[in-house]
Design a protein that fits this description.
This protein is of the alpha+beta class. Among the domains are: about 325 residues, alpha-galactosidase from lactobacil brevis (Beta-galactosidase, Chain A, domain 5, Distorted Sandwich); about 80 residues, Golgi alpha-mannosidase II (Immunoglobulin-like). Helices cover about 20% and strands about 30% of the residues. The protein contains eleven helices and 37 strands. The strands form seven sheets. Strands 6-7-8-9-19-15-14-11-12 form a nine-stranded antiparallel beta sheet. The chain has an eight-stranded parallel beta barrel with strand order 20-21-22-25-26-27-28-29, surrounded by five helices. The two termini are about 40 Å apart. The model has no long low-confidence stretch (mean pLDDT about 95). Bound molecules: alpha-D-galactopyranose. The site of alpha-D-galactopyranose has 11 residues, from loops. Alpha-D-galactopyranose binds next to loops.
Length: about 725
């Protein structure tokens, strides 16, 4: 067992990390330690026994002025009981009071991984070394209790947490905040790394030292969002890719979230992560429960690359159980950028034929195939093929694509509706909108009310009808606007604080009802590009479209930021035509190919408009990707340089788990310092092994490649790309 309980101390061990908690003399659960592996011995000596004047002391502490909930590190903090930091919980009790003080009641330890009944979680595979600890804390007065859930993935060095609230009080409670995880560090000397952005520029990397007060990021858009990602790193100020302490916190949730790192007046740090409490109020009748989404935590003593490897491994192996997770992902061509809404069967078939000749394996028909959807203003919601564009509907088109020896894929955006649609005309009450107010539109669409069971049932049926008619091998599931006017006509006025969360619960139900019943279909997530790229989505979608921005240079920062938590095999990345739609930038075809190989590779262009030279290059890169796609998807990924640094190039590397093969990619960004000698320092190789590099004609030791590096060819123009294959020889250097 990797979880031990002894003398009131809980110790969770993974291969390289330890997490410890202790039941205090008054029954509060204290957080003691999370960091490099230590023994199971109690480390509570780290709590100073000093009187913090002006802090309150709980009644049971009597004359002990040292014992204060605000000064002691808490595992699940109380509310309205003298801990003034961001709380784990806020609620209104049946008597109108806000107090909650959780005290230890009981615990259980068992082998395996807990699951939640309403929310997606990571899961343990057969024979996985995973253990679970459940601790129940109860308020002695109201009897409201919370079960804290912890699972360890021993070899993967991941600890997951969640919390379930039980209303065992005598009346109805109003839950206003329930954090999934909260823990207190005794100091504040950390940098916070988070990932911000917007549509077309997702997951830009931000790093700043924590300051006193609340350092907060989050989303209040009804989705995890483009603007902040529910993944945050805290690390030492000098932590880099190879060295230093780093902690990751990844919320497995696709809706509103908050991450707080509060540095208090004693320069201690409280971390709290969970559902955003804004406009959140869940009524729980006596006996009802509420589940908080899971947080996946990782700790690395060896810098950011190691932290990323932990997340990459867990997301590749323990998030989604689709057979596609470990399969070779098909190279696809998508109709959106080449045609938008303007296509017919013939045009699509011609495109598929040309794509097939280039080695493409999957043809994806994007938006515009259904209802009256000839632009963004109508038809959304009517999931019936437009026979004028597609005679014989989807099965007929899919059949033709299959005859060419390709797979066929289809776009859906089930959560949305145009007002000009049959669905909206039939059910105007099925959208989120505030009574007596005109609804705000985005992209000419409204958001369906997924908190309603009838809407969920309809969507499951409507999408399944198309899929069950046959021919579809892949689905792109899009979500293209944020919600506001969040009000459901299905629920009474005093339950509107539940709608944001009920929407997400509805979404997961729909995904279960469609994805789990079609295991032969590869599902890709999307949200105006990468606006809902989170751990929970990865439990359904083995891959997610990373960004609508297909400009190779913009993609350098987008993919770099995404890689901190999410593995490369989850990132949809395509070659598009130049100049690209958003940035109007033109870069060489090879550069587009090299950046698109940083993910599940595909094309977003019309082969009919390509030059002969581009067509030749296309076949070359398609073949190259096929040769290396297993290494790219399942190898260890290293960020060799940052696109934000003042360097000429951005480079990254894939290394097979057995260290025998590697691929190094670099894109030059800056020619202002052309004559500087640039070396790409490789990582992850065996120092004493010899490696062959066909592109340079050299044979070099792992030590040389890592310490001296590969010399980047001189005098290359801006936005050029390089790719080096590295293959281990059977000889050692000594
Ligand atoms: C979103 C997606 C695009 C495309 C369009 C279709 O913007 O990110 O890839 O599917 O919707 O409307």
């Amino acid at each position: 067992m990797s979880i031990v309980y002894e003398n009131g101390v809980f110790t969770l061990q993974t291969a390289h990390s330890t997490y410890q908690m202790k039941i205090s003399e008054h029954g509060h659960l204290l957080h003691l330690y999370y960091g490099s592996r230590i023994s199971d011995a109690d480390v509570s000596y780290l709590i100073p026994r000093v009187v913090r004047s002006h802090e309150s002391n709980p009644a049971e502490a009597g004359e002990d002025r040292v014992y204060s909930l605000c000064a002691y590190p808490q595992e699940f903090s109380s509310n309205d009981a003298g801990d003034y930091r961001v709380p784990s919980i806020e609620l209104i009790n049946p008597d109108g009071s806000y107090a909650f003080v959780g005290k230890y009641r009981t615990h259980t330890i068992y082998h395996g991984k807990y699951r939640l009944s309403t929310l997606p979680t990571l899961f343990a595979r057969q024979n996985e070394n995973a253990d679970t600890l459940e601790i129940v804390l109860e308020d002695e007065v109201t009897h409201v209790s919370v079960k804290l859930l912890y699972s360890t993935f021993y070899e993967k060095d991941i600890i997951t947490r969640s919390a379930i609230l039980y209303n065992s009080s005598e009346g109805e409670i109003r839950l206003q905040r329930l954090m999934s995880a909260s823990l207190d560090f005794m100091t504040c000397d950390y940098d916070m790394i988070d990932f911000f952005g917007h549509h077309y520029l997702e997951r830009q990397t931000d790093r700043h030292p924590l300051t006193h007060g609340i350092n907060e990021i989050g989303s209040f858009r009804g989705a995890s969002g483009h603007f902040h990602n529910p993944f945050v790193i805290l690390c030492d100020h000098n932590t880099d890719e190879d060295r230093g302490n780093a902690y990751g916190f990844c919320l497995m949730y696709s809706g509103n979230f908050v991450f707080d790192a509060e540095v208090d007046g004693y320069s201690q740090t409280r971390v709290a992560m969970g559902i955003h409490p804004k406009q959140f109020e869940f009524k729980l009748a006596k006996g009802e429960t509420f589940e908080a989404p899971e947080v996946a935590m990782a700790y690395s003593a060896d810098g950011l690359s190691e932290l990323s490897h932990r997340y990459h491994d867990i997301f590749r192996e323990n998030a989604c159980d689709s057979k596609f997770v470990s399969a070779q992902r098909p190279i696809l061509i998508n109709s959106w950028e080449p045609f938008y809404f303007s296509f017919d069967s013939e045009k699509l078939i011609r495109t598929a034929e040309s794509a097939k000749a280039l080695g493409v394996e999957l043809f994806v028909l994007d938006d515009g195939w259904f209802g009256t959807r000839n632009d963004g203003r109508s038809g959304l919601g009517d999931w019936v093929a437009n026979e004028q564009k597609l005679p014989g509907g989807i099965p007929a088109l899919a059949d033709k694509i299959h005859q060419m020896g390709m797979k066929f894929g289809l776009w859906f955006e089930p959560e949305m509706v145009n007002e000009d649609s049959d669905l909206y005309r039939a059910h105007p009450d099925w959208v989120l909108r505030v009574p007596n107010r005109a609804p705000s539109r985005s992209r000419h669409q409204l958001c369906l009310d997924l908190s309603r069971p009838d809407v969920c049932a309809h969507l499951i049926q409507a999408v399944n009808d198309v899929l069950d008619a046959g021919g579809v091998d892949y689905v792109k599931w899009d979500y293209n606007r944020y919600v506001c006017d969040v009000y459901s006509q299905y629920y009474p006025a005093n339950r509107q604080g539940e709608i944001y969360h009920r929407y997400i619960l509805g979404l997961y139900k729909i995904l279960d009802g469609i994805i789990k019943t079609h295991p032969h279909i590869l599902f890709e997530g999307c949200s105006g590009g990468g606006g809902r790229f989170d751990g929970a989505m990865l439990t359904y979608f083995p891959q997610i479209w990373c960004s609508d921005n297909t400009d190779a240079i913009s993609r350098l920062t987008i993919q770099y930021g995404t890689s901190f938590a999410y593995p490369v095999c989850t990132m949809g990345a395509h070659i598009s035509a130049c100049p690209t739609k958003k940035t109007k930038r033109t870069v060489p075809f090879k550069t587009r190919a090299v950046t698109a190989m940083h993910g599940t590779f595909g094309y977003e262009l019309d082969p009919a408009k390509m030059s002969e030279e581009e067509i030749d290059e296309c076949s070359e890169y398609t073949t190259f990707y096929k040769k290396h796609r297993v290494l790219i998807a399942y190898g260890d990924y290293y960020r060799l340089s940052s696109p934000y640094d003042d360097s000429i190039f951005t480079a990254w590397q894939f290394v097979s788990k057995d260290r025998g093969q590697s691929l190094v990619c670099a894109v030059t960004q800056d020619i202002s310092i052309l004559d500087r000698n640039c070396y790409i320092h490789l990582r992850g190789l065996e120092s004493d092994s010899l490696y062959e590099i066909p592109q340079t004609g050299q044979t070099l030791s792992g030590a040389a490649l890592q310490n001296i590096g590969i010399l980047l060819p001189h005098t290359q123009p801006q936005y050029n790309a390089f790719i080096f294959e590295i293959k281990k020889l059977n000889t050692k250097t000594i």
